Amino acid sequence: MYWKRISYHKKLFIVLTIVSSLPVLLLGTIAYKKSSDTLMRQTEQELQVIAGQLITAIEKQISDFDRFSILPYYLTEAFTIFNQPYIPEKEWGSAELNAEKQLIRLMSAYPSINTSIKGMVLYGNNGGISGYQLSGSSSINRSYDVTKEAWYQEAIEKRGGFVVSGVHEVRQFDGQAFTAVTVSRMLLDERMRPLAIIALHISPDFIEKIISSSQLRDTAVTVVDADNQLIYASDEQIADHLLERPPRVGVDGVWTADSKLGDQNVKYSGVVRQNKYLGWTIYMGKNQDVILQGSSTIRQYTIAIAIVLMIASAVVSWMLANSLSRPISRLIRSMRNVEKGKFEVLEAPTRYDEIGQLHLSYVRMVKRVNELIHSIAEKERQKRKAELYALRVRIQPHFLYNTLNSIRMLAILQQSPQIAKLIHSLNRLLQSYMKLNDELMPLSEELELLRDYGQLMDLRYTNTFAVEWDVPEELLDAGIPAMLLQPILENAIFHGSMGLNRILLITVKVRLREDGNTLCIEIIDNGIGISEEQIALLLDQREDDASHIGINNVNDRIRLWFGREYGLEVQRQEPGTAVRMTIPYKSVTRGN
Questions:
Q1: Where residue 268 sits, what CATH number does that domain have?
Q2: Residue 83 and residue 166 in one domain
Q3: Beta strands 504-512; 465-470: pairing state
Q4: What is the pTM of this model?
Q5: Tell me, what's the pLDDT at 546?
Q6: Is 287 found in the same domain as 229?
Q7: Last residue of a domain, which of 293, 325, 340?
Q8: How far apart are CA 138 and CA 175, in angstroms?
Q9: Which of 183, 213, 442, 474 has the largest CB neighbor count within 10 A?
């Protein structure tokens, strides 16, 4: 519904702007999408290579620890204390002390070989335990049961195989526990009998050293063991996300995770690599904003170009819509003026397209309609003038016949000064009749002529009728066509007094209806009355019927003047007849 109420100009502008902007936005979106996908694929490939190199470096480091765990095989004399039943330290002899010294010398050499080794412990199969810690006390906490450790049990199961644990707390030494990755294996004698289990406790920092040496900036690295236990994490939030919802490693091994960089939410995307030798999994990812930095530049340029093109297309669309809608708006304004009766002819069109042809056809149509209306108005005016002239011609013989007959009868009866008065009134009526035209005259002048006519009729019908006047002073300036009331008064005198043995009372009453726009004039008599059949004939006389031509003439003149909603109404009363005339009220200047 809202779209229907929008102007054609706005609709055209919106449609053109959208249509012209869509290709730009579509191309920009496709370009950004393609560049983003390309950068993501390239980054994933690079991360796969880097992750492979990193896991290889970790594997190489762990393999070094694997070689370190077999060094005790080259110092067989150091293991003599494990070939014999367990002897408490207090009961050791020189042989046990020399063996212990060699073991301590061996274990203390390990940290110098690799600084990531934080400690070493030998668990003899006979129950003896020897250990060395790089920092802190090297005293063994014999109350701690190491046999419950998973790596210890796995080393027993593998019987000489290499075992790598995840990160855990080492509690074998007296003092504070520390976090480490334990590599271990079971040492066997020449008869393949269990001799001892060697455990190297390695700081997880060796992974960070490898990553630091690789100069992996803006890269998040997470390493977990086979049990999905965290070994190393450069970003704890990403590590928590990966540990809570481990991604399914597919063909490409791609993962995404959310993190925070300061107060901003950051989304990381990366790859997954697994190492079968260690059983570890490495997650390596980068900030997507960093990955798509080049694509963001393309997006910014695309947005800038799209905005410029949209503005340009909007301007062009506005100009085009304006050029199309402006002539249509002029036609609409002209049509509204034509609806109001104002036939304003537009200028000739300056364009020759379809709108120009429509404009030209409309201009021709308005000119033609204007000419037809003026022609019809002129014909109606001439017709009205001719009809009024014909009506005056029809009034003249009828009126003059009655008047002259009165003068003739008076002259026959007697010679009297009243003849002069009669002739004077006749002259005034003739002068008024000769001035009969298309202009309205004040009601006051019409009533004066009606009084003169009443005097003439009183000379003819002596002591037959009497006239009463009920006319408000404020209505005397009402406009009325000339000689409109005389036929009604004549009809009341002639027909109302016929066969009446008393004086006929005629009342002329003027009033304004409640709407304030309609003037009502009534001529009421208390004579013998009129039947309904006579009323119907009175207002519907044929042209060759002259018996009541005066009443019919008045009704026709009113309708010619003011329209068919006005006219005469004849009503039977008890006793008498009432003739009611309605015309629109319009004030005119007296004396004109």
A1: 3.30.450.20
A2: yes
A3: parallel
A4: 0.46
A5: 45
A6: yes
A7: 293
A8: 9
A9: 183
Instruction: Tell which residue, 83, 154, 89, 162, has the closest CA to residue 124.
Output: 83
Residues in the chain: 592
| Angle of CA points 83, 89, 92, to nearest 5° | 65
Q: Which residues contact 343 (CB under 8 A, 6 or more apart)?
A: 337, 366, 369, 370, 373
Positive or negative torsion for Cα 583, 585, 586, 589: positive
Amino acid at 592: N
Tell me: do 196 and 232 sit in the same domain: no
Q: What angle do CA 289, 292, 294 make, to 5 degrees?
A: 125
Closest to 180 measured CA to CA, from 133, 122, 228, 227: 133
Return the pLDDT at 509. 95
Domain boundary among 293, 325, 352: 293
Residues pairing with 261 in the sheet: 264
The answer to whether the peptide bond before residue 575 is cis (omega within 30 degrees of 0) is yes
Q: Which amino acid is at 177?
A: A
- CA 152 → CA 128, 138, 259, 565, distances in Å? 15, 20, 36, 120
Pick the closest to residue 130 from 164, 163, 95, 106 (CA basis): 106
Mean pLDDT for each consecutive 10-residue tract of the chain (592 residues)? 65 73 76 77 80 82 80 64 62 61 65 74 80 77 86 88 86 86 84 84 82 74 82 82 68 69 74 81 80 69 76 76 73 76 67 71 80 80 68 56 61 61 63 63 89 82 88 92 87 84 91 91 90 75 50 84 89 89 87 48
